[in-house]
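Re-run with default settings, no changes from the original entry. Doing this only to confirm the output is reproducible before filing.
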Amino acid sequence: MNKKILVTGGLGFIGSHTVVALQERGFDVVIIDNLSNSSIEVLGGITKITRISPEFENLDLRDKQAVNNFFEKYQDIDGVIHFAASKAVGESVQNPLLYYENNLNTLIYLLQQLKEKEAPKFIFSSSCTVYGQADELPITENAPVKKAESPYGNTKQIGEEIIFDTCSAVPHLKAISLRYFNPIGAHHSANIGELPIGTPQNLVPYITQTAAGKREQLSIFGNDYPTPDGTCIRDYIHVMDLARAHVIALERLLDDEQAENYEVFNLGTGKGNSVLEAVKAFEKVSGKKLPYTFVDRREGDIVAAYADTTKANGVLNWTAEFNIEDAMESAWKWQQKLEEKN
């Protein structure tokens, strides 16, 4: 009998690609999503790729009773991958209470249910934002967790602390926090991809929408950073590399007796690219010249962040297979498919 995995936020960007990777690996998947930042159409995209329609529950994890009812209905959940969260840095600065409620209460309700299970496994969608502006690059898992630059970043820090404390108190719970750098791209089939509601908060969908004529021009936040071209440097990782890492981490929890009670891994390519380099990579694969302008720095942004992936490479036997041009090409293919629909 296949293991049954709950994926919260499973119709979102990273969640949907991870559902595909799980199903292709033979797992049964149940998705929880309240569709606040996703579309039910993504379910069709997943099914088209894998020829399997995952079970789906339209549920708001902030509703504690609804979470209790879910676990009463699905008593055979073997593991949880928790993506469901609000994730826009700027919005979190404007509306911190929304972020604390949505990102922390939901985590607590899930863990309260899991600790009652026999051998629960939990994977947390964390972020490199926990490091703030690191003192040394590339960033290892041993880098100090600094005061968060935004309420969003703070929810990831507090979330990790909640999981660590819970694992300490509940020895039969095993958990992994995966600290992502900057996920971009889409599934190579272009059946699923990043689907922001309203104005994109992330760089790549803004680039692709601008190239498609939906946006007048790309706004680049700041060109006076202490970097070679003045723009921020990030570690852009293909979403399918990220999805694959979740499956490997889950299998470690399920199968590997060596897995510790609580572990943390960085997930990135190990290479930093500036915003302008990302724009040039897109222009190269798309053949399109992108109109852009420089605007003021954005509150909460740091100068540079890219991963030291030695731990994930060695312990998980995982490494990123795709580069930034591969990711940009898939993102553009996805955008073009969206344009065909409209």
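Residues 203-233+271-310+324-341 form a domain with the UDP-galactose 4-epimerase; domain 1 fold (CATH 3.90.25.10). The chain has two domains: 4-184+237-268, 203-233+271-310+324-341.
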